[in-house]
Amino acid sequence: MDFNKLIARVKNILLTPKTEWPVIASEQETVQSLFTNYIMILAAIPAVVQLLKLSIIGISIPIVGGTYRVGIGMGITQMVVTYVVALGVCYLMMLIVDALAPTFGGEKNQVQALKSIAYANTAGWVASVLGLVGLLGSLAALAAAIYGIYLLYIGLPSTMKCAQEKAGGYAAATIIIGFVLSLILGMVLASVTGLSGAMGSAMSGSLNSSSTYTPDQNSTLGALAAMGQRAEVASKKLEAAQKSGDAKAQADAAGQMLGAVLGGGAVEALAPDALKPFVPETLAGLPRTSFSVQKQAPIGMQVSIAEARYGNNTGDGPSYELTVTDAGGATGLMALAGFGALEKEEQSDHGFEKTYHQNGRLVHEEWNNSGDGEYTIILGDRFVVMVKGSHVPNVDAIKTALGGFDLAGLEALKSQGVKKG
After folding, report:
1. 0.90 exceeded by the pTM?
2. pLDDT (tens digit per residue) in 331-349
3. Whole-number Å distance between alpha carbons of 119 and 115
4. DSSP classification of residue 270
5. Which of 21, 232, 314, 333 is 20 to 30 A from 12 via CA?
6. Cβ–Cβ under 8 Å, residues 141 and 199
7. What residue spans of 263-357 are helical by DSSP H?
8. Cβ of 315: how many Cβ atoms within 10 Å?
């Protein structure tokens, strides 16, 4: 196994997919060689990460508090089953992509079909490493899935010889079937291991607009299609930068590509001074005991965060933590959450957790009977306002504490810093 070749392939398919897909399509491979030299190696990443998360690091339990870990034996079982099922999904999806080829004007070829699945899954497999870092891991998984959509969409014409105008429909059919397949196998995984199996990166499929299918722009699929289109535009800039040999231009273009996938690459996050007015000196009658605000731009994505703590000088009694985040360069993820209508409600003897929409805003509540809770609201598909309360009587006390916050004023800034074109 040539690991230098594997690393180069991962880099190229992620950064310059439009030029890499024709190279991939022309390579002489077999089903066995693709599995042994690429799929079996990269598909192991999420399985190992899952073991570390389940049995070593543990899973935080929001309602009851604390950290839950499974025994190392069960963790290993989960890892092995997840890995085997992931390989099985790749093989089944190869058969599906191959069978669908004539329907969309393509040519049947199982090796090329497996290439389509394997390399479209690359982003999800690589990004699974970030699953060890909580919320960042969730956002990375979503971004990787979206990028996998784009990869499959632009790859099918090269591998399966379908016309570009039919690639959207081909990719859509593939992802719908793959999604259903993943759900079924996920239930099998859960029944085998006794745990809720997450098939998150089992299939990074695709859907994009084409001359034969145009999703509603106000739907989840429409949001995904728009992200794919932005990624296509950004990829042209990346290809030009690669040809120029300018290292800085390549780095900037890579950042723009990621920003395009996240849907907010053209958004200038608010300056720290602009966030300060939204962090009051008192909250629920309690004085502010600490305060910080910063603006970051990791790999081209701008994000601004203001944080403050409120409580008594004695350190006892109720206390609150306020976090105000301008998602900036990741606004596409926020919009996708809203489009997806991610609503749920769970209750137990220890408390409850629920996510719902209210006045067009996505709201999340958590509460446990020990006196700790959280209330989060997303404004304008861009700003996240979160208040955590400790030693408070109920979640309504947290909502009341946020009552003096200028939600409407912050939401009114949702278009500020958005670059046209």
Report:
1. no
2. 554 554 444 445 677 888 8
3. 6
4. P
5. 333
6. no
7. 272-275, 331-339
8. 8
